[in-house]
Each structure stands twice: as C-alpha cells, then as structure tokens.
C-alpha cells in the first residue's frame, strides 16, 4: 500500500496501485499558480502542502489496509527557497517564470549558457534554478541570505514531512550536475556567478534513499510516524519509468503543461558543440540517463485557444475531426509562453504566430493548425533527443483521440498510451518499491496500454510538406524575435 503523490504545477494527485499496476484508489486537488505582471509566476508552499495533505488523507481513507510508504514526485525546475525548518522565505518561483528572460539572453550572448551546457549537457532557460538564483542574487539578495536551501518542489515537501534537507539527482541535474559523476560541476556554478551561494545547493541523495515521516509530518498526513518516504525522481523521469520506458532509444511524450519529450540512453556522452538546450537527466538507475527536451508549448496553448475562441476543451476533438491535415493552409508557431522556449532551442523572446489566414478560415482550421504545430515541435524535440525505439505518451493532451492521432502521424511512429492516467505517480511507486526491497513486475505494470497506429497518408503529408513548412517558418521567425 504505497501512496504515490504527483505534485504537479496546477494539480496534485495521489494514487494507490495493486500488485498488477492497476489503480485502486486516487484523489486530486488543484494547486494555485499566481501569474503576476512582468511574466512572474509563483506558488505558495503552504498552499501546495495543503494539496498534498488533502489527497493523501483522502486516498488513505479509501484503503482497507495500512499505508506502507509514501512515494513523492512532482514538478521540477524553478526555485523553492526555504529556511532550516522548511519554511518558505519567499513565494516559490515557478519553472514558468520569465523574470530572468533578459539575464538568460545575456548569458546566451556572452557564452555563459554554452559553457554550462558543455559541462553538464543541460541548456539553461529563464525558469531554471541558475537564472532565477542569479536574478535574485542581484535583485533580492536578502531572500537568499535568509535561505538555508535553494531547492525544488519535491524536496520542499520532503523537508516539511521528514525534516530532511535533500534533493533527488534528477532535480539536481539541471543545470549544475555532471551526469557522468552525479556531482555538481563547480566551474558551472562559478560561471553563473553563484559560487558564493554554493551552500544553498543540497547534495543529491544516493540511489534508493529512504526517509521517514517525522512527528509533524505524520500529524499533517494522519499517517504513522516513521513511515518510509521516497523523494523522486521528479515528474519527467517518473513518467518515463511509469509508462514503461526501459530500453535505450525508447522515448516518452508528455502532453501536459510542458510538452516533454524524453529518450533513454546509457551513455553520459552528448554533443558538447550542439545547440545548448534541453536537459541531460540522471535517473534512479546508475548508468541510465534521459535526454529530455521539455518544450514550453503544451496544453496551456490549447487552454489559450479555448479562451480566445470561447469554446470548451471538449470541443477540441470535434473541431479536429472536422478539419483535414494541413488545416486548409493555416500554419502556426505555438510559442505562447511568456518565457519563450527552452527546447530543442532556448530563446526567451520566442513568440507564437499564425499565417495563411483568410476570410474563409474557421475555428477548426485555427485549432488544427495550433495542434499540428505542437506536434511539429514534438518531432523537432525527438529528433534532437535521438528517438529510435518505442514511443510512449501520457498527459492531458493524449486524452484527445484526435490530437493523439495527429501526434502519431506527425511523428511517423505508433504511440503506446498507458491505460491509467497516473503515470508519474506510478513511476514514483515503482522507484519506492525498489528502494524498499519489494519491487513489482515493471513489465506487467507497463502492459496495461493501448496503441495508436499511424495513418500512412497523413504521415506522408506531414513528412513531405507540413513539417518542412514548420521548420521554414521557425527559421524565419527566429531571426525576427526580440525581447
């Protein structure tokens, strides 16, 4: 009875699975995300803790046996500053935040971003810890002075529940960890001007680390003091594990707030002269890594389109079904985030556009053009990450059969979709079971899935024309973007 908890950006979920990997109890509740003027995006740690308390207590009440462990995963990146007791010294800064846009552009111009990439394999973006901490060091130094640790969402929750200051190796990967050694690259920290803040970085916990609920954490959740707690990996690698990514070359598409494209590799080597973008993530298994390209163009773009057009999300599928590949000549670039794009290229000034519009263009073509453009972005990411095996998918976006079909056709490969939506929590539970010495059959857990096959004529159109048009539009737009 391991409770898996996935602390997402906008939603916290708790799930319990049976021995075959089928969920038998689940609960979810929304988190508050504060979008402030100037591209600032923040969250309140106390409110996030309230969501964890709510879902864990609700799921525990549904069980007829005692809870044996708690397995945590959740959003990565951003900065969650805390004091030695786990109290927030300021609101958490989300990975969606854009306050460091100009700083990141400066680092790209003066070579700092490339130097860090050469050392760690991770491309920095405005919402990563390095850019945010450097911004705070210049503009809010007193906040850093008050902090004992500059961490992430999952380890912030772990500190509140167990009293431990730690960080999972996956969270620590971006941007300062050398993937080959799993240790911080001190020169990368210095390159970002953060050497004097080095004490804020918790050392990554060893593989299979297990923590324990302390007295206050137990009281908060209504669970026994001393209950085992595992902390990570964060949601991207947790989803890969939960979906069934096992062999080098296999990948996973997460169509959520982030459009995360990841590919498993057993080599810590990367193209040090390539475009400094994406992430090189350490996994719980030593000697295995994920080349991750988490683009900023996920389901938030669809929410924007729904609001603009005055429609509900449920109407997206019928609109896609009523339109043809190519969207009647309407094309889009999907870069709607205030902080630009972070994979497979980094540009804080990246912005969206529609072209090919006429008086005859309708809502269906606008929606299809946007959905196709996000699928093209996924193909761009997977080409950079090196996908050549089985592709899995999860996230809210793949609940739409029509959009999932577009992804399969644009990517030109079948997509395996786990039947249970709690893929991140599933991965966290599998990691916890391994750490506790009671592993489940991961292959059996991954067997509950369906496959979306490619429609050959659609795939041929996207290969021959659609993706080429997207690449040409992107190349032209990158020369025009300005902060």
From TrEMBL:
The Gene Ontology terms for molecular function here are: kinase activity
Entry-linked InterPro entries? ATPase_NBD (IPR043129), Carb_kinase_FGGY (IPR000577), FGGY_C (IPR018485), FGGY_Carb_Kinase (IPR050406), FGGY_N (IPR018484)
Domain Carbohydrate kinase FGGY N-terminal, chain residue ranges per copy: 1-242
**Coiled-coil zones:** none
Q: Name one Pfam family in it.
A: FGGY_C
**Alphabetically ordered keywords of this record:** Carbohydrate metabolism, Kinase, Transferase, Xylose metabolism
Residue span, Carbohydrate kinase FGGY C-terminal domain: 320-435
The family this protein is said to belong to: Belongs to the FGGY kinase family.
In Swiss-Prot or TrEMBL terms, this protein is called FGGY-family carbohydrate kinase
Which species is this UniProt entry from?
Amycolatopsis minnesotensis
Q: Tell me the classification of the organism that encodes this protein.
A: Bacteria, Bacillati, Actinomycetota, Actinomycetes, Pseudonocardiales
